[in-house]
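Could someone model 3-isopropylmalic acid with this protein?
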Amino acid sequence: NRPFRIAVLPGDGIGKEVMPEGLRALDAATKRFGIAIEYRHFEWASCDYYAAHGKMMPDDWKAQLQGMDALFFGAVGWPATVPDHVSLWGSLLKFRREFDQYVNLRPVRLFEGVPCPLAGRKPGDIDYFVVRENTEGEYTSLGGVMYEGTEREMVIQESVYSRVGAQRLLKFAFELAQSRPRKHVTLATKSNGIAISMPWWDRQADEVKKAYPDVALDKQHIDILSARFVLQPGRFDVVAATNLFGDILSDLGPATTGTIGLAPSGNLNPDRTFPSLFEPVHGSAPDIYGQNIANPIAMIWSGAMMLDFLGRGEGACRQAHDAILAAIEAVLRDGPRTPDLGGKASTTELGEAVARNI
Amino acid sequence: NRPFRIAVLPGDGIGKEVMPEGLRALDAATKRFGIAIEYRHFEWASCDYYAAHGKMMPDDWKAQLQGMDALFFGAVGWPATVPDHVSLWGSLLKFRREFDQYVNLRPVRLFEGVPCPLAGRKPGDIDYFVVRENTEGEYTSLGGVMYEGTEREMVIQESVYSRVGAQRLLKFAFELAQSRPRKHVTLATKSNGIAISMPWWDRQADEVKKAYPDVALDKQHIDILSARFVLQPGRFDVVAATNLFGDILSDLGPATTGTIGLAPSGNLNPDRTFPSLFEPVHGSAPDIYGQNIANPIAMIWSGAMMLDFLGRGEGACRQAHDAILAAIEAVLRDGPRTPDLGGKASTTELGEAVARNI
Ligand SMILES: CC(C)[C@H](C(=O)O)[C@@H](O)C(=O)O
Ligand SMILES: CC(C)[C@H](C(=O)O)[C@@H](O)C(=O)O
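Reply:
Sure, complex below.
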């Protein structure tokens, strides 16, 4: 077995600060469980690179990433010098699309030691996944403006979904639900308002469901579904959603657990035809960059998700994943804490504490 | 001064149960403050009507509503007999569009006596308005399916915005903010992902803002904005949003105050070229219909909003609005309570208590 080959892309801002801690945890876990892993470091996919080269990535970025098993990604964005839509569409969104990372997987979980903004909720009360479609849908540059600059000006924005795209996303969601005790999929819809695409999504879900008789399917309109993330979070197990709805729900969910700074994500190509990408959900956070106070847990947790994906949920990789998660849980419970959780520890101190616990 | 003419449309389910209490409160308030008001009752815009006539409303519905100053609307929907998209597009959504009710105004407020799902928040901590565009945007039947039934099947859904539509909505939001102490507008955007319409909305907001130098404008992406409704609700004063984003935020906001069953709304035509429509945000709730246990406060509060709109925020109507709100506050604080708030009172008992307090 050849070692796993990981492309390391710290990106911008606190991405550069949390990445070393992500790697520290990976080193500890792979060492402990005898997993062979190799890193290759890249400076591009960053606004620093843009400043020097006028683009976010070299033209041969795909060739340079040839043979990589996964991308370990910090954060991208430095709006003071590069507008967000340029930096994002030129790197992260490009990876998601060109590497066909069609599932954006985001766990939502309440931890002991993290103050929960919802009243009266305890660890165990909130534990679900948002499974977000990640390559099509509402995020497009299709459409345009008519009668620009006049009173009659109007704009059309198109959303595009494919049967293949919807069904493979739903299949992933049903399979994930099947592997969990509650076996329950919620589809985020809005078929009572968005009259073409959303009834169509409802039908795709009904169709895919047929292959999973043991999994329940519940379709909820995005308005009331968002409300229930706050009011009845215990209802949810696996939540399948379009790109936009998934984007909203995967910020809202972590917010309800007080962990928006701790949330990891996997941008997955489950077919393994291209490398998948693992990144914290928090961005580059220019406001706190340079102080070494960013919480590295989202980065570390993303690394654990990466190992689990590489190992297909089994063997040494699964054990390494579980050990990292246990270490995260222990540190969240017992400290040290970074300032976002009311402590005084640095990014480095937190990373060292997690690594020690692994 | 001729009396205000109000069309009363109870609709379906608990709409029929809360409507009498809405009228009871209006009667008490208009009597106390000497406001002349006349009602005209309609059985249509309901699924019962659909069952008898195969349509939600008579063909001459507009003629029948001729001369009405406002529509006082219960709830529509009875999915057991009429699919939601038929009942909604055949009544409520028709009113919103054909009467050009381009603002959907939804207050979000934390009350004493209502358990708040957010930890540690007190009345006063949450107090903002969602100003939702109500006539265009993401809710369209434009688009279609290609290669239906094959592997290549794809669907396009179009969203449509007009400059007139966006600017009048934003103007309303800025004016509302100008009348409030904090003078702050948040625009819900997603210009880093939805690449045509959302940067365009950002520009519309910048343009409209120029006329309101004393009002601050803050653009936030819908994902993090939703998270902040939970984490930092005190940030918000007036939140302007497209039809879809406003739909989500105006369910999520009330959820964070524990008042999703209490939330009122005004579907406003601020130009007064057509009647405006006032309705509770809760739907027809088939599951609790027939037991006389629905909480009528959303209906009553919607009536107060109606009077305030009819009186242009001044004089006897404003006093009547304030008196109804004070009565709602008193009943929420001191009881009686309907089962949704942990009590045993009936819909009627609650309505009587509010009316007594007026
Ligand atoms: C019932 C539905 C079509 C409606 C909407 O989305 O507008 C409702 O959710 C609302 O918010 O008034
Ligand atoms: C930065 C932005 C384009 C991105 C998205 O919306 O996909 C982010 O919010 C995320 O969720 O990963």
